[in-house]
Amino acid sequence: MKRRQSIPVQAGKVTIGGSAPISIQTMSTVSPAHTAEAIADAKRLASYGAEILRFAVPDMEAAKGLSAVVSAVDIPIVADIHFDYRLALAAVDSGVQALRINPGNIGADDNVVRVVEKVRPKGIPIRIGINTGSLPADILKAHGGHPTAAAMVEGALRHIRILERLDYRNMVISLKASDVPLMIESYQELADKVPYALHLGVTEAGLVRDGSIKSAIGIGTLLYQGIGDTIRVSLTDDPAEEIKVGQTILSSLGLRRFGPTLISCPTCGRTQVQLIELAKEVEAAISHLTVPIKVAVMGCVVNGPGEAKEADFGIAGGKGSGIVFAHGKVLRTVPEAQLVPALLEEIEKSIAKES
């Protein structure tokens, strides 16, 4: 897939846009005003693979508390600010590497100038975030009273032009909606109008199951079209789940690899093992690995190795026994109870040989 070329921006050590890898973001549920808890949560989410981490900054105590968080972790911290430009100034003083603030919502033009002049020396990017629920009344009225892709784009351009007039183009733009087709259409329209990096997400996506599906469809469709530079999966759950789903989306499209990928077949009448339990056991057994390999769990020896020949390693169950295979070739037959240990043994032998 040919990727849309956007203007790259730098958030700490992470490049967003251009030809940089598509980064995964999430948002902490802890206020940085609670310093110890915020640091612990930042470290936890970084360990799961968060590459950019955002904190809500509702007051000055939170803005100042960011300083300790920034110093404690090695990933970029984004301050999420609404309306009060003074919180943005304080967050920059605390060392954040990016801001999420809409320049059209922070009052007088002088306030915008103060923010831009604060971030300009450090080249700190500003993310402009448009949501269906926060479109200005005049834009909604002009588009029939309902959020449309054209209304979303108009809302984004209103903020973008403010920064452009100040000759500040270190921008990342998001156009989030809970309606997946609207989200896709909005990003598609904006992608043709501006050269800035795009932050993809389906907002208010819901609980893990539905939210993951909606996010995979919305984010995945755009990424497959070459649109998007950084992503956040928004789930009503632990932010660690957002990271995992984001990694799966990127891995499924072949854009990045994050440790092992498990592939497994659905059950059918030929299956003579407890396939669901077996797949879950393998998933848990390989979760500590960091090498980007494909591991297959197949229900029968008849089709297993052939259907999963693209897997680096795999197992296929039979009646009381099964096979261990690699790249479509059978390595050995073992009793059913030994399938998982034998699989791990072959994987670890291969890793040791290549290290």
TrEMBL record:
Gene3D superfamilies (alphabetical): Dihydropteroate synthase-like (3.20.20.20), Sulfite Reductase Hemoprotein, domain 1 (3.30.413.10)
- Entry's InterPro entries? Dihydropteroate_synth-like_sf, IspG_bac, IspG_bac-typ, IspG_C, IspG_TIM, NO2/SO3_Rdtase_4Fe4S_sf
Name the coenzymes or cofactors required. Answer: [4Fe-4S] cluster
Specify the IspG C-terminal domain's residue ranges: 262-349
Q: Where does the IspG TIM-barrel domain lie?
A: 8-247
Entry's transmembrane regions: none
Tell me its EC number(s), please: 1.17.7.3
Cofactor note (record): Binds 1 [4Fe-4S] cluster.
Q: Name one GO molecular function term.
A: 4-hydroxy-3-methylbut-2-en-1-yl diphosphate synthase activity (ferredoxin)
Q: What keyword terms does UniProt attach to this protein?
A: 4Fe-4S, Iron, Iron-sulfur, Isoprene biosynthesis, Metal-binding, Oxidoreductase
Q: Where does [4Fe-4S] cluster bind?
A: 265, 268, 300, 307
Entry's SUPFAM superfamilies? Dihydropteroate synthetase-like, Nitrite and sulphite reductase 4Fe-4S domain-like
- Catalytic activity, per the record? (2E)-4-hydroxy-3-methylbut-2-enyl diphosphate + oxidized [flavodoxin] + H2O + 2 H(+) = 2-C-methyl-D-erythritol 2,4-cyclic diphosphate + reduced [flavodoxin]
Q: Function, please? A: Converts 2C-methyl-D-erythritol 2,4-cyclodiphosphate (ME-2,4cPP) into 1-hydroxy-2-methyl-2-(E)-butenyl 4-diphosphate.
Q: Which family does it belong to?
A: Belongs to the IspG family.
NCBIfam families for this protein: ispG_gcpE (TIGR00612), PRK00366.1 (NF001540)
Q: Under which name does UniProt file this protein?
A: 4-hydroxy-3-methylbut-2-en-1-yl diphosphate synthase (flavodoxin)
Lineage, highest ranks first: Bacteria, Bacillati, Bacillota, Negativicutes, Veillonellales
**Gene designation per UniProt:** ispG
